[in-house]
Amino acid sequence: MKNTTKGYVITNWTEDQGLGVQLSYPEDLLVDLDDMMRIFYAHITGAGEAGNVVVRLEKARSNVSSYFTGMESENQFMINFIMELGEDPEIFGEAVLSEINQNIIFYLKNISQNPANRLDITNELTDYIKNSLTYLARLKNLTKEQVMAQIYNSEKGRWILEILQDQSYSKKELHNLLEEKTGKLIPNFDILLSHFVKTDLVRQDWIEGDSDISLFLLSDFIIVRRPVDKLIDDAKKGVPNPSVASKYLEIVSSYFSNYSPTEEDNLKIANHMINPDVFDYVVLFREKPYPINKVPRGPGETFDQVKTFLATLEADNIIKIIKDESNVNWIFLVTDITALKFYPEYLIENIRKAVSEDILKKESAIKHLELLEQIYKK
Questions:
Q1: pLDDT tens, residue by residue, 274-285
Q2: Which of 45, 110, 177, 208 has the fewest C-beta atoms under 10 angstroms from its C-beta?
Q3: What is the pTM for the complete model shown?
Q4: pLDDT tens, position by position, 240-279
Q5: In the 3-class helix/strand/coil scheme, how is the chain assigned residue by residue?
Q6: What topology does CATH give the domain 7-141?
């Protein structure tokens, strides 16, 4: 494998042939079969069940996030996402990689069931992997708003937030608490933590006399839907035209009179926010509505792809297609989806209680309160 090339290597295990490469993308991604066997052994140590492993390959200077379909599956496929050495699956999010893996498996099963169409389906799979790699590259450049959605979209991220909402912890204590909650080793803890530091939710600081750095929650956030003030103000002025404007105001009023946030809905929102292709359209529609045939397209995007993104957003009540008196279909953003930060006032009482119950050292409490005061003054 070339030092900085990222891509996918799909292998298949059979009793008579052993481990063989079914497909690699890009085509110039060189595959070392000894490395592939190392990953395979990491999967089959134990029960050989379906699941994920992350393996560091020193010779190839790569990290690999690998999914194995399991020894009991009809075809024993291993889907290997080859990353740069400093990268970790948590950068991209478990849910995203899992969805890509499941889609790749769908294509692989299709190839097995339709050998006559093997070439066409393989070409479709190659295109899918190519588009997925472009998408994964974009996930490394999410805005702070999207990174908070990424935290919420990850079960481990939500647990870290929940733990730090009580009090501060040393890095080692938090790591141990998270491993207790998940019941498994978490080698990528620093990556998980980096999301909190990058979004200014958590401050890392030293307390005199401690050998380990402490982690202090200084801001909290919620994932929420909210009305789009600019569009409502424009609609009240009859923009873009009186017939659709009045329909839009009715739809928004009806939706928010019954809206109540739930974890299920928030996870749906977070999932859209961390999808750069979909969220770009949310950001675009914050400014103004568009006739459906005039919606701007991204580089290389087809009208059918745009329609797929729009259908996803409409199904989840984020946008609405409204027809005007001239039979023109307009796209309106009905609910903006966002991550809103807020000052965690509840922490002051939690810190006081933890100190009074001798759960938290006074030095940690004082440091945390000082940091919270600084943030409050800002």
A1: 999 899 999 999
A2: 208
A3: 0.83
A4: 999 999 999 999 999 999 999 999 999 999 999 999 989 9
A5: CCCCCCEEEEEEEECCCEEEEEEEECCCCCCCHHHHHHHHHHHHCCCCCCEEEEEEECCCCEEEEEEECCCCCCCEEEEEEEEECCCCHHHCCHHHHHHHHHHHHHHHHHHHHCHHHHHHHHHHHHHHHHHHHHHHHHHHHCCHHHHHHHHHHCHHHHHHHHHHCCCCEEHHHHHHHHHHHHCCCCCCHHHHHHHHHHCCCEEEECCCCCCCCEEEECCEEEEEEECCHHHHHHHHCCCCCHHHHHHHHHHHHHHHHCCCCCHHHHHHHHHHHCCHHHHHHHHHHCCCCEEHHHCCCCCCCCHHHHHHHHHHHHHCCCEEEEECCCCCEEEEECCEEEEEEECCCHHHHHHHHHHHCCCCCHHHHHHHHHHHHHHHHC
A6: Beta-Lactamase (3.30.450)
